[in-house]
Specification:
The protein has about 325 residues and is an alpha/beta fold. It has ten helices and twelve strands.
């Protein structure tokens, strides 16, 4: 049995329209219950996304002149802080925090607070930010992709220092802070940082600063960005194997039969206008385990599927009872 593999699951917070048909009064209880269920089912971690609007592809089939979808979406870090009080064991992460949404020193303070509240169970997931409409909708600047990624590198430096030093002054190209302080310090001596993205510049930030690198996509696309990350690690003298490789994707469906899985994913695609490249992993437990087994063979050790049939628990439960044991037994 492979005990090094780790598995997480998402709490349905609304980005993928999971809460559209849930009455307002029932939404927060559902999120609490789902966090507890993820823990009870034996998952190693629970995850939330950092979004302010619903997924953009949900409006791809919108009739001209009709308003954009505006369904409930719970804010990432306040939600995570609350869920830390309704769980005891699971790690708590974000895939991924948009670095553009919060000043890095403030994010360092928020993360340290949640880590203390959770008893040292936090994972800090970071990304450069990509959904422009969220930024314009909340009055948040949306720089060029290059500037967003370079800012991400400076942000990680600032956060690491604030978590370990008494007082920090930082004069970067994008970030300046004067005598910043972060108390309480995180409960963990070393707060794990996960960075998502496969671009050349992003992978340079991963090599320099991250504990984990998250890959989004299918097994056949993994080799190229992994090779680029290895090159980046070699260039600075870091052991490529010291970076934990993780995987995440949206639109995952697990059912007892292929016919049931096909019907379920087709229904979700129609209802939410989800493109095929965001809902490609569906099928029986054996099929899903086989696909993820390809990633295990490539070096991925942590998996966080986002089950698109939420708030149903069918995929969540089948993955826990059949996919996870199969992967651990045969990897």
């Amino acid at each position: 049995m492979n005990d090094t593999l780790r598995f997480g699951a998402f709490v349905p917070q609304g980005f993928m329209l999971e809460l559209t048909d849930v009455p307002d009064v029932d939404q927060w209880p559902l999120l609490m219950d789902r966090a507890r269920l993820i823990e009870q089912l034996g998952y190693d971690s629970l995850w939330v996304s950092d979004h302010l609007h619903n997924a953009p592809w949900i409006d791809h089939g919108r009739e001209p002149g009709t308003p954009r979808t505006s369904a409930p979406v719970f804010e990432c870090w306040s939600l995570l802080a609350a869920l830390s009080q309704h769980t005891e064991r699971v790690r708590l992460g974000q895939l991924t925090t948009a670095n553009t949404f919060r000043a890095p020193a403030l994010l360092a303070k928020i993360a340290a607070t949640v880590d203390v509240m959770s008893g040292g169970r936090l994972e800090v997931g970071l990304g450069a930010g990509w959904f422009e409409r969220e930024h314009t909708g909340y009055g948040i600047p949306f720089p060029s992709v290059g500037d967003r990624i370079r800012t991400l590198g400076e942000s990680v430096e600032v956060m690491r220092r604030l978590w370990t030093e008494h007082e920090v002054t930082f004069e970067g190209r994008y970030i300046q802070i004067d005598r910043g302080r972060c108390r309480p310090k995180p409960a963990q001596t070393h707060l794990p940082i996960l960075i998502g993205g496969s671009g050349k510049t992003t992978l340079g930030v991963v090599a320099a600063h991250a504990d984990k690198w998250n890959y989004l996509g299918q097994p056949e696309g993994y080799a190229e960005p992994a090779a680029r990350l290895r090159e980046r690690c070699d260039a600075i003298g870091r052991d490529f194997e010291s970076v934990t490789k993780t995987w995440f994707d949206t639109g995952v469906i697990v059912r007892s039969s292929e016919a049931e899985a096909r019907a379920a994913i087709e229904a979700q695609r129609v209802a939410k206008h989800i493109p095929a490249d965001r809902s490609w992993l569906w099928g029986t437990p054996d099929h899903v385990a086989s696909v993820l087994g390809e990633l295990v063979a490539l070096g991925v050790t942590e998996f966080v599927p986002q089950f698109v049939d939420a708030p149903s628990t069918e995929s969540l439960e089948l993955f826990a009872s059949e996919v996870i044991p199969a992967l651990r037994a045969h990897s």
